[in-house]
Design goal:
Length: about 140
């Protein structure tokens, strides 16, 4: 009986090792959408972006908005779909928030978006994110 348990534990450890890490190697929370239509039509409820950082292919956005607890918020990072031909090339994005919470508490959140689909020819692209003063250089 002990041998069977040890074999099962060994199989479990082996099956959970590298394959699970490859499912989302970036450990990003959400995907980035590319759509001119969504860029224009998605909700744009009030939010404040405090900081943006890139870690690998994840764009980490620290932001805040008013609400009760933020559990019902719907968030999307949307790329406009246009690529400005400059050196480096540039993309335009915005963080869309649908916030129907009626409370006035200030809530802070941090989300990581997978931006690997924003890569273009070359090895870098400059990201212009609406509501954030600095441009963000994505190198890959």
């Amino acid at each position: 009986m002990k041998k069977i348990i040890l074999v099962l534990i060994g199989i479990t450890i082996i099956s959970c090792s590298d394959d699970d890490n490859n499912l989302n190697s970036n450990n990003c929370d959400l995907e980035t959408l590319i759509s001119a239509e969504l860029y224009e039509s998605s909700p744009s409820d009030q939010l404040t972006i405090h900081n943006i950082e890139i870690d690998g292919s994840c764009l980490k956005i620290d932001f805040s908005s008013g609400g009760c607890d933020g559990d019902s918020w719907e968030l999307k990072l949307i790329d406009k779909g246009d690529i400005a031909e400059s050196l480096p090339a540039q993309r335009t994005l915005r963080l869309s928030l649908k916030n129907e919470e009626l409370c006035e508490k200030l809530i802070f959140r941090e989300l990581n978006f997978d931006i690997s689909n924003l890569q273009i020819d070359g090895n870098e692209v400059l990201l212009n994110i609406m509501g954030f003063d600095d441009k963000v250089l994505y190198e890959y």
